[in-house]
Design goal:
Elements lengths: L6 H18 L1 H15 L3 H19 L3 H4 L2 H14 L15 H5 L4
Helix pairs in contact: 1-3, 2-3
């Protein structure tokens, strides 16, 4: 089944989260950057892109899977895409009688 977000949409979504985190936690991120600079002996300008990438990777880990976040419309779209992806297999179709209540449940229906 295809992902709920396209790769581009997902990356933009994660970038928005990182931006919000940077804005609301700027002091903490600055402290982490300074600590990493001391540990690695690298200048802050080299640490910041790496820290940004690390935060993005950590956010990706916490993202909910499709089945936990999808709306009914997204489920419908995903199911339709899945069905369409199988059309080229030319599988035989079931008749209306084959999927009727009587044929599924017999005398119990």
């Amino acid at each position: 089944m295809e992902e709920y977000y396209s790769v581009i949409d997902q990356h933009q979504h994660i970038s928005e989260i990182v931006y919000a985190l940077k804005k609301s936690n700027s002091e903490e991120l600055e402290t982490v950057t300074e600590i990493l600079s001391k540990i690695t002996n690298l200048p802050l300008e080299q640490i910041k892109p790496g820290l940004h990438a690390l935060v993005e990777n950590l956010i990706e880990l916490r993202e909910l899977p499709f089945y936990e976040q999808a709306t009914p419309e997204a489920w419908s779209q995903a199911l339709t895409q899945w069905v369409e992806s199988h059309r080229s297999l030319n599988l035989p179709q079931l008749s209306d009688d084959a999927i009727s209540r009587e044929s599924l449940y017999g005398e119990r229906g």
